[in-house]
Each structure stands twice: as structure tokens, then as C-alpha cells.
Inverse folding.
């Protein structure tokens, strides 16, 4: 099997006495969209932040494209495009300024970043807003700008944390096709989401985290076999994470 594009190896992250990610080993393989799912507080964002070099692991190692995220952060970052949840950006800067910054960080010339940035923003229906401050943008517009910044340098690995939130239906459909196309062209995608129907349709493999630990990782058929459920990813997820029936919970909540 070919070398993984990204690896977390026996990674643990503690905040004081609390272990947020416990002894996690996970590979992202070339050509795949890997889904990362789990209940609220399971440790998904903490895992993604460690993978992207934004949070140092307490123990274990993380690498992207063969480069240690802690020892060779610049080389690892050059292989990575990251769209964080909520896409925090510099409010006073325009998409063009963000794209130029990203371009410089990744060794593109300003002319290359300008041309490619304009092309991407045009396809994202934001060509006419490329010089406006992102602080004036809607959530979905910021999300699209963050996506353009992430894919501008054509990274080997795309990491997206809940990327569909805020996108309108056509934009969400386009993004799903982009993820699939990215992987089909030899890149890799780590995709974190609570939208299990989308994860089921887009991802080749799914990693299930619960209570800081990896419950299992595999294709939906593997997860079905492991859970003993023959149903949708949502049903498999409930079985694997021992989540209560939502209807019963809603009844209890309403009293
Ligand atoms: N900086 C921090 N300090 C203390 N605890 C933290 C910190 N960051 C995360 N945690 C804790 O780690 C656990 C995992 O959080 P994380 O954000 O990774 O979960 P998640 O799976 O992304 O959840 P959600 O689906 O709700 O976004 C939570 O209990 C959270 O309170």
C-alpha cells in the first residue's frame, strides 16, 4: 500500500487532567476522502488542530507528506490546506489580500496568486467582492473565501472542519464534488462533519471518535460489520457510540 499522506501515531492531547484525545493512531491515504465523525466533545477539532500544527500533542507524532508537524512545521504546512470551522479571518483584509498572503507563504509569485485567486473567487461567485473586507461578509461568504485560500496552493492534503455550514445548497453540492475530485486526482481529504448523510455519500472511509478515543475506522461496510447494524451511517454511528434514540431523548427533554 502507498505511503499515507498524513499520519497521527499514538497521539494523546491532555488539557490539565482531562484527556481530550487518547492514544489515537490514524492515517489519511492518497486518493481518499476520510470522514472524521463523533458526538459533541469527542475530540474531533482537537485532532484536526493537532494535525494542522495548531496544537502540540502531549505525546505521539503527527506528520504530513512525510514531514513532522512539530519538527518541520513549514514543510508540513506547505502540503496542507485547512478550512477551519467558522473560518476565522482578518476582518479588515479582503479576499485578495488573504489570497496573496497564502500565495507568498506557499512560494507562489504574486502574479500567480492574483490570477489563481481571481479564478477561484469567480467560480465561487465572489468575483465582485474580492476587494471588500471579509469582516463585511456573511458566514457562507467567509467560508467560501477560506476554501479559496485553502485550495489556492494545490495542497496534497485538504482538511475541512464542518465546511458545509453556512453554504447554500448549490455551493454545498459543488464543495462535495470538489472534495471527491480532489481525492480522485491523487490528493487526500480529511473531512469532519456532523452531517452523516453527506459523510456517507462523500467519504471512502470514516473514523469514529467517541469520548476521546478512536472507536473504529473503515469503509461503511466495515463499520456496519463492527456495529452489527445494517442501516445508514447515522444508525451505525448510534450503535458504535452507544447514543440514545433521539426521539426518546426529545420526548424526555420536552417533559
Ligand atoms: N483549550 C482547551 N482547554 C480545555 N479543554 C479543551 C480545550 N479544547 C478542547 N477541550 C475539551 O476537549 C474535548 C474535545 O473537544 P473538541 O473541540 O475536540 O470536540 P469535538 O469533537 O470537535 O466537538 P464538537 O462536535 O462539539 O465540535 C471537550 O471536552 C473540550 O471541552
Amino acid at each position: 500500500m502507498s505511503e499515507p499522506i498524513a499520519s497521527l501515531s499514538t497521539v494523546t492531547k491532555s488539557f490539565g487532567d482531562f484527556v481530550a484525545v487518547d492514544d489515537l493512531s490514524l492515517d489519511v491515504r492518497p486518493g481518499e476522502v476520510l470522514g472524521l465523525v463523533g458526538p459533541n466533545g469527542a475530540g474531533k477539532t482537537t485532532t484536526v488542530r493537532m494535525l494542522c500544527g495548531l496544537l502540540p500533542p502531549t505525546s505521539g507524532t503527527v506528520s504530513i507528506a512525510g514531514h513532522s508537524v512539530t519538527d518541520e512545521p513549514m514543510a508540513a504546512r506547505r502540503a496542507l490546506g485547512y478550512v477551519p470551522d467558522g473560518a476565522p479571518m482578518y476582518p479588515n483584509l479582503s479576499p485578495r489580500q488573504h489570497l496573496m498572503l497564502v500565495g507568498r507563504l506557499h512560494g507562489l509569485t504574486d502574479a500567480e496568486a492574483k490570477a489563481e485567486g481571481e479564478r477561484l473567487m469567480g467560480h465561487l461567485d465572489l468575483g465582485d467582492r474580492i476587494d471588500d473586507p471579509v469582516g463585511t461578509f456573511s458566514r457562507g461568504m467567509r467560508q467560501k473565501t477560506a476554501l479559496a485560500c485553502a485550495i489556492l496552493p494545490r495542497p496534497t492534503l485538504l482538511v475541512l472542519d464542518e465546511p458545509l455550514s453556512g453554504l447554500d445548497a448549490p455551493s454545498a453540492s459543488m464543495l462535495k464534488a470538489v472534495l471527491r475530485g480532489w481525492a480522485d486526482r491523487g490528493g487526500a481529504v480529511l473531512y469532519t462533519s456532523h452531517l452523516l448523510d453527506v459523510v456517507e455519500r462523500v467519504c471512502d472511509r470514516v473514523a469514529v471518535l467517541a469520548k476521546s478515543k478512536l472507536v473504529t475506522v473503515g469503509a461503511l461496510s466495515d463499520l456496519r460489520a463492527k456495529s452489527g447494524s445494517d442501516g445508514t451511517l447515522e444508525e451505525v454511528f448510534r450503535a458504535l457510540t452507544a447514543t440514545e434514540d433521539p426521539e426518546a431523548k426529545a420526548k424526555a427533554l420536552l417533559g
Observations:
- The chain has two domains: 14-79+156-255, 87-154.
- The longest strand covers residues 18-28.
- The chain has a mean pLDDT of 92.
- The chain has ten helices and ten strands.
